[in-house]
Amino acid sequence: MPDRVPIIVTLASLEGGAVTLSPEGEIGYHEAPAFRNAIREAYDKRPKRLIVDLSKVGYMGTPGVATLVEALQISKKSGVPLVLCGMNDRVRGVFEIAQLHKVFKMTPDLAGALVA
Amino acid sequence: MIESPPVRIEMVSDPRYLGCIRELVLHAARQLGFQDKAAGQVAMAADEALANVIKHGYGERPDGKIWMSLTPLGDDAVLGSGIRIVIEDEARQVDPSCIKGRDLSDIRPGGLGVHIIREVMDEVKYEQRQGVGMRLTLVKWTNGRAARSAKSA
Fold first, then answer.
1. Which of chain B's residues have a Cβ under 8 Å away from the Cβ of A59?
2. Would the CB atoms of B22 and A30 count as touching at under 8 Å?
3. N or C: fewer beta carbons within 10 Å in chain A?
4. Which region holds residue A103: left if phi is over 0, alpha if psi is between -120 and 50, else beta?
5. Does some domain include residue A17?
6. Residue B45 contacts A, CB cutoff 8 Å
């Protein structure tokens, strides 16, 4: 029986060269590899800014957080700003426990992420 | 006589099933009196612990056995009500004193699961099972954090 796609991730290019990456669902150990592939695909588009819109993510475990730390490392090397937006309190809580909320650029919504 | 836990699950070390276990633990914690945020933390701790068994214990082999039990802990005058989660496996044994979260000032992917578990739960105990595998016992109380704060004040 074929396994279903573990997580849906939509990529969109915006005016000005920004790319948004919007995962939907929960990002745990099972879903993190697909999320990681989508992030690499987003960087392959050579965006001027990468925005990860987490407004449709209900849960994120440390494998998802680790994937975003990898993305941050790519951003630092490539000079492409990375912004996370739309996190719910549950997801933000993981970043706070790991003290990573001080490391990432975060905004409440997509409009803020475009100008952050 | 040792009472059986009211919920005991046997699962294989296949990460596809972690999502349904998260939901089960989340609902059980709410049922036992935890508010949404704390119930979410209990579910996350179980999820991180199971992911660690799959990744580090079984080396991502999908057919290892894992057992998880959930037990309500009766009302305590100070701590409130609680939940105990016990996770057992037949994976490789490690020295419990070597299971540590990483230094948070070291910003890199990975190594956060144990830190999160210790941060959100009131009691965390790793043990080697007799002969084979590991046992992890997690406890959280509805008033655990407040009780700790009051004690340290």
1. 22, 40, 44
2. no
3. N
4. alpha
5. yes
6. no
Task: Convert the pLDDT of each residue in B29-88 to its tens digit.
Answer: 999 999 999 999 999 999 999 999 999 999 999 999 999 999 999 888 888 899 999 999
User: Which domains occur in chain B, in start order?
Assistant: 7-152 (3.30.565.10)
Average pLDDT, whole number, for chain B?
91
Quote ipTM for the complex.
0.89
Domain CATH code at residue A78: 3.30.750.24
* Residue A22 lies inside a defined structural domain of this protein: yes
* Residue A2 belongs to a domain: no
Contact between chains at A28 and B104 (C-beta distance less than 8 A): no
Domain carrying residue A64: 8-115
Closest chain A residue to B115 measured between Cα atoms? A98
Is the pLDDT at A2 greater than 70, yes or no? no
Tokens 């991730």 -> residue: A9
Q: Does B66 touch chain A (CB under 8 A)?
A: no
CB atoms A26 and B19 under 8 Å: yes
Task: Give residue-wise pLDDT tens across range A21-35.
Answer: 999 999 999 999 999
